[in-house]
Amino acid sequence: MSDSQAASAAESPPAEPETSGLFSLVAVVGAPNCGKSTLFNRLTGLRQKVANYPGVTVEKRLGKVRAGNGREITLVDLPGIYSLTARSEDERVARGVLLGEMPGLPPPDAVLLVVDSTNLNRNLSLAAPILALGIPTLIVLNMSDDLRSRGGRVDGNRLEEQLGVPVVQASAARGEGLEAIRAFLSGRPAVHERLELPVLQDIGSRRRWAVHAAGRSGYQAPAAAVWSRRLDSAFLHPLAGPLIFLLLVVAVFQSIFTLAQPLMDGTEAIIAVSGGWIGSLLPDSWFRDLLLEGVWAGVGSVLVFLPQILFLFVLIGLMEDSGYLARAAVIADRTMARVGLEGKAFIPLLSAYACAIPAIMATRTIESRRERLATILIAPFMTCSARLPIYALVIAAFLPEKPLLGPLLGTRAAAMIGLYLLGFLAAVATAWLLKSTLLKRRSPLPFTLELPPYRWPTLQSIGLRLADRSLIFLKRAGTVILLTAVVLWFLASVPRTDGRPPEISRSLAGSVGKAVEPVIEPLGFNWKIGIGLITSLAAREVIVGTLGTIYGIEGGEGEGDKNSPGLQQALKQDLTPGAAVALLIFFAFALQCMSTVAVVRRETGGWRLPLLQFAYMLALAYFGAWAGKTLVEIWV
Amino acid sequence: MPVRTLSDLKRGDEGVLDRLEVSAEVSERLMELGFLPGVRVSAGRPAPGGDPMIFRVDGSEVALRRATARCLILSDSAQAGDEGDNV
């Protein structure tokens, strides 16, 4: 939604929507798991804007939809709620939006109340407080395809009579009923007659009211989801269940390394070819150097990871949309409980292997604040894909490839697995430490998790996730990473003497590196690594591009190629085996990612926790690296 | 006769919920998930290892830790279920 539009809507007097008689802002409300977001995505497609509500960690999702009469209407997707009692942050936000108390957002002209029709008794309870608001409401009986196929039914017309508001049967997953929703959106607001509502504060009374309304509309609850029971007898089997769980986790990792590799090679080739092409077009100048050494080498070394990250998101998306992830959370809960986490933390921690940022945002599903904070604090220890470039470079430079377990496992893969394990152990140890110190107080809310029936994931939803992730990643590559690359190139190119760039050791970047050298010298790092550590504060993967640039400039070559044997040779000359181990451990532990720090600040609502987390991880990285180097030196 | 709780239900067993011995905040949360006094609850297949347990209540399946299930007290007579089911 454009800001100007929001502002004009906000300025218009409250009476105006009635005179013009058309909706401009419509809220989408529903219980968790009712398919509300699927419907929102169906209606708005990619025309979405995501931000946070001011001061709270609840996501504000706005999207544009074209109503039946061709007008553009803004939809706001509210968090999944069971009631409007304003107990949780989500409920307070939902209530605030509906009452028009949210700064920057006018009160909605209408509400789409999405209910899961396979569980109408429970879902309809939310209708009572929503209808009590007196805003024009359309009740969307979602998942009606599921209801039919499992032998249930409900008479929409009779429900309409019961509740005095329009009702449509729909299936967001299949795109059924969307026309009726668009028609409602293009219509004129009809204020529904006041009907008898239950005592809103009393859950039992709300439920009886809902059961009564459903019953008088001929509601027949669906038969149990037979296929879900059958699948659960395998996925939750005492022996097969955990085995399938482990196999799936291993398969996810295996595939992001093997299946994503050709795509990554392809991306790399495209970047190299396009760089060469641009280089041949432009005349020899500082601008050409900036473009090739700074932008192409720096941003390109990061873009290579896009396929891998997308691959991981597709796999996690498939598990989530099919309903398996909820079972995985149940299986993981017992183990997670030992270190003071809960089963729902499994989902963000698994996605943290792709990237800590979406993982930290995914912790929103954890209701207990204490366990949510613990999960946020340990998520960056999971080996995210941004660590892969430096791991791959150092391992390739220092470890010759030899078979360990026949053809199954080589030394390099084993080293990589070891680093994954190291991050995981650090996370577990930190969770345990938090449980007995900072987050000692037990949370009042227990672990509860609704298990949805299994469903086929839809192409649309997976596609939307992919597009969403790509945009976020490209935005990051185009901003933070691009800026770092350009600044580094600039610092490495001044002061110029006789119109020519200086040797890297005499450049501004070199001076910065030399300034930090005394601090990192005990770890066996020289000033060049020092520059890399500083630039990689922006994002971990930047260090490879940086080293490429530094050694590339130093060697008098135009471009630093991260896979070039040249960079590996150069590193081998500059680092002892002990220092190489120190570098790996440093990157396993340190929070070298400003985007993560920023997202933790946003999600925890202050600077205290992200700064504490940064300091803790840095200290652990420094001493871990030092211990690693010392051990290697004793051992070798 | 000792009180029976949800955690005593074996797989496939049913019972009628009598009361929730938890704080108001927790009880509200559990009631929203369907655990209302008088409602019929049956135990499904638990997670491997027996904890968390999975309950079928009001048409959906909800996982609760055994420790939570222990605070949900069942009505002592099986007959109590007939009237309670209509809630």
Largest sheet: spatial strand order of chain A: 2-3-4-1-5-6-7
Helix content of chain A: 55-70%
What portion of residues of chain A belong to β-strands? 5-15%
Q: Kindly, what is the distance between the CA atoms of the first and last residues of chain B, rounded to a whole number of angstroms? A: 27 Å
Which structural class best describes the helix and strand composition of chain B?
alpha+beta
End-to-end separation of chain A in angstroms reads 61 Å
Separate helix tally of chain B: 3
Shape of chain B: globular
Describe, in plain words, how this protein is organized in 3D.
The complex is a heterodimer of chains A (636) and B (87). The N and C termini of chain A lie far apart (61 Å). Helix content of chain A is 58%, strand content 7%. Chain A has helices at 3-11, 16-20, 36-44, 89-98, 120-123, 127-131, 144-149, 156-163, 178-186, 203-216, 226-235, 240-258, 260-281, 286-303, 306-322, 324-338, 346-351, 356-362, 369-378, 388-398, 411-436, 459-493, 508-520, 527-535, 542-554, 565-574, 577-589, 594-604, 608-635; strands at residues 25-30, 48-52, 59-66, 72-77, 110-116, 137-142, 167-169, 448-451. The model of chain A is unreliable at 1-19 and 556-562 (pLDDT under 50). Chain A has 636 residues and is of the alpha/beta class. Chain B has helices at 24-32, 66-69, 81-84; strands at 14-20, 40-43, 53-57, 60-64, 72-74. The longest helix of chain B has 9 residues, at 24-32. Chain B is globular. Residues 79-87 of chain B have low confidence and may be disordered. Chains A and B meet through helix 10, helix 16 and strand 8 of A and helix 1 and strand 4 of B.
